[in-house]
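fold description:
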Amino acid sequence: MEPEAFAAAAQLLAEHERPHRPTVVIAIARGGVPLGQALGRLLGVPVVTITLRHNHDDGLQVEATGCVDIVECAGLQQVASGSRVLVADDICGTGATLDALAPLLRQHLRPAGVRTVVLCRNAASCDLQEGAGPDAWVFDTRDWVVFPWNDPAGAATEPLTAPAGVRTRQRAC
């Protein structure tokens, strides 16, 4: 993903989420932090970072384990109960990361609402049970994605097409 595509996707997601009036963005480290920061800036709301580990290696093309460990969530103490939360991550594949976060947010925040956005939804997300996966995303992909903050170490990459709009869970896969 080229930096210009990232910036355009973040802008599209911010415009899409603005009517939901989020009061805080929770960015899932590491990959969700750049998107979370961009959304916080564009929406004018604070950003809190938490760390959930889905892969035990930060290398590229590492298969997801399906298990999610909560590594760091102290930042949630900064979020007021009853907040309208917007969760940001880079990609949704199996949905395990977003699924692991839901009970954590209910336990610590008692939010007025939670919405989830990602830059990319992997084709595997189409196989999730109804109601799982992100609320909104920009790119559907069936391949590995190298984001601007990744180091592809000389690997051959192909750019994603320019973002055309936001996709939502209501649309069929």
Notes: The chain has a mean pLDDT of 78. The first helix runs from residue 3 to 17. Helices lie at 3-17, 32-43, 96-108. Strands lie at 24-29, 47-53, 69-72, 84-92, 113-122, 136-141, 167-168.
